[in-house]
Amino acid sequence: MNGFTPSQTCPAPLLDEKSLHMLHWRSRRGLLENDLFIEKFFERYGHSLTTSDADAMTALMNLADNDLLDLVLRRTELQEAMQTPAIQKVLEMLRESRPQS
């Protein structure tokens, strides 16, 4: 069990195929390290991403490559303005998707 279950009160709708493809394409990064865990993220969670997850992923993808890598590797934590439940959830999903050495 990965701990990420949809809200039982009002779940966000799942992404349609076109939106998922666009999110995946926009998530390509300049650092190979980022691309590796992002690819694992989509392999693992792509089929179950919601519109809320997509918004959170977009916010994370707006970060500079090195800042994103530092977050995923737990070298830093989210800035206060980004500490929303949705962004924290997607960040944890990204962290779980890190390729293992």
UniProtKB/TrEMBL annotation:
Keywords: Chaperone, Cytoplasm. Pfam families: Sdh5. The keyword Cytoplasm applies. GO terms for biological process: succinate metabolic process. Gene3D superfamilies: Flavinator of succinate dehydrogenase (1.10.150.250). It comes from the Bacteria. The keyword Cytoplasm applies. GO terms for cellular component: cytoplasm. Belongs to the SdhE FAD assembly factor family. This is FAD assembly factor SdhE. It comes from Lampropedia hyalina DSM 16112. The lineage of its organism: Bacteria, Pseudomonadati, Pseudomonadota, Betaproteobacteria, Burkholderiales.
